[in-house]
Design brief:
This protein is an alpha/beta fold. It contains ten helices and seven strands. It has two domains: 138 residues, Rossmann fold (3-Layer(aba) Sandwich); 71 residues, SG protein - dephosphorylation function (de novo design (two linked rop proteins)), CATH 1.20.1440.100. The chain is globular, with a radius of gyration of 17 Å. The relative contact order is 0.18.
Length: 217
């Protein structure tokens, strides 16, 4: 059984669920629309450029979770799945997942986007396991803080190796599919790195190293 690892946003999805959740909160009037949208767009641009301060971003992104009750959050996420995530689903991505299932591979999503946003998406895609940035919770709900290592850049490698130590899986014969130069540290760890609809920097890296480049769009 080989490990088939997938980035989520702009890889298995035709869009970014983290940015889309922020946009959804603006549309629902949950946050100060102009201020929040400006910051949300700024952080997304930083991510695309490879300059994102993950701790600064998470302080921003997790704050609304701490300000809303769990029942309200669940209702909002159901609406979010219908309005924002469903249009991002890609037939070719689902076919790729099925190909790996048919090979007997173990499907793992590893994403910088937090588990509140991505857990239901991974379940919808039928993934075996999810590694995501973990928002801290207490008896009252979300605290607005992070627990553990953020699942971003080298943090993805750290989180993956922690997971490997806890399971019977290994990176022998492993795949990793990603669109982003932010995932270069993890792409360098696997047997079969694959660039998916890559950004310009990853496109250049993949071409120079002879990695496959595919499109799921």
């Amino acid at each position: 059984m080989a490990l088939a690892i997938f980035d989520l946003d702009n890889t298995l999805l035709g869009g970014d669920s983290d940015h889309a959740w922020g946009e959804f909160l603006c549309e629902q009037g949950i946050v100060d629309t102009d201020e929040y949208r400006h910051a949300n767009d700024h952080f997304y641009q930083c991510y695309q450029q490879g300059t994102l301060d993950i701790n600064e971003f998470l302080e921003f992104a997790l704050r609304p979770l701490a300000q809303l009750g769990m029942n309200q959050l669940q209702t909002l996420h159901q609406q979010f799945m219908q309005q924002k995530v469903a249009p991002m689903m890609l037939e070719k991505a689902e076919a790729l997942l099925q190909k790996h299932r048919d090979q007997g591979d173990f499907l793992l999503i590893i994403t910088a986007t937090n588990r509140f946003v991505t857990g239901p998406i991974a379940a919808k895609l039928g993934i075996d396991a999810l590694l995501a940035t973990e928002p801290e919770q207490n008896a009252g709900g979300y605290t607005g803080k992070v627990t553990g290592t953020p699942c971003f850049q080298h943090g993805k490698v750290t989180r993956l190796h922690e997971w490997l130590d806890e399971t019977q899986h290994s990176l022998d014969g492993s795949y990793f599919y990603s669109d982003s130069i932010n995932d270069l540290p993890l792409l360098e760890q696997v047997t079969f790195p694959v660039a998916v609809d890559p950004d310009a920097k990853l496109q250049d890296t993949a071409t120079s190293r002879g990695w496959p480049v595919i499109s799921l769009r």
